Amino acid sequence: MTAADPARDAEVPLIRIVDDDPNLRDALLFMLSQEGWQAVAFPDGESFLRSEAPSAPGVLILDVRMPGMSGIELHRELRRRGFEQPVIFLTAHGDIDMAVEELRRGAFHFLQKPLDPEKLLSAAAQAVELDKRRRLGMPPVEEIRARIAALRPREREVMSLLAEGRLNADIADRLGLSIRTVEAHRASAYVKLRVKNAAEAAALWAAAQTDEDGGLG
User: What is the pLDDT of residues 109-132, one digit of tens each?
Assistant: First the structure.
């Protein structure tokens, strides 16, 4: 099966798979491509390290046990090299303890074999979103929500409408406020959210709402 070219647009997330099982690699590539993801697969850690894929944004799906360099050894080598993209480990039942230890060392998640396709797709999507926030310099979602929670109710209403792309005049009309009052709420919210403009505020708002527990409501 033909995989995506890792040298394409650096802003397009790439899902990398490192697993010695060719049937599983092909199945994962097919499933991910059907969901619209760019994906590339490698049979071992050595070939992955020789490729351009480690530097691409996105997520790494990594088998724990492989001939030669194990998934654990590859993960630790990547961390030594400053690799920051999220890593999802694939584990057999007997490898769970090792996977949990790698979670403590910075891995994002682990999934047991045989794989549940829905769980894999969900974990991959969450990992890609996490990597996107990291590359944009955004804080963890818990901190984002703490900043939003510090807003007064009217500031929250203003920022929610601003995140929808609405202008001050439209926000003022919807909330029954003067434009000057909207501007004052907006300026105060910027300080609490630690953003400089509407684009940064909207990105922060969207990041909070895309978290797995359903967002801000």
Answer: 899 899 999 999 988 988 888 888
Give me 125's structure tokens. 């999507």
Residue 195 to residue 124: CA distance in whole angstroms:
28
HSE toward the beta carbon, residue 167, CA cutoff 13 A: 2
Q: Is residue 102 predicted with pLDDT exceeding 80?
A: yes
Position 11 scores a pLDDT of 66
What are the φ/ψ torsions at residue 111 (nearest 5 degrees)?
Answer: -125, 140
Name the token pair of 185: 């709420």
Does residue 21 have a pLDDT over 60?
yes
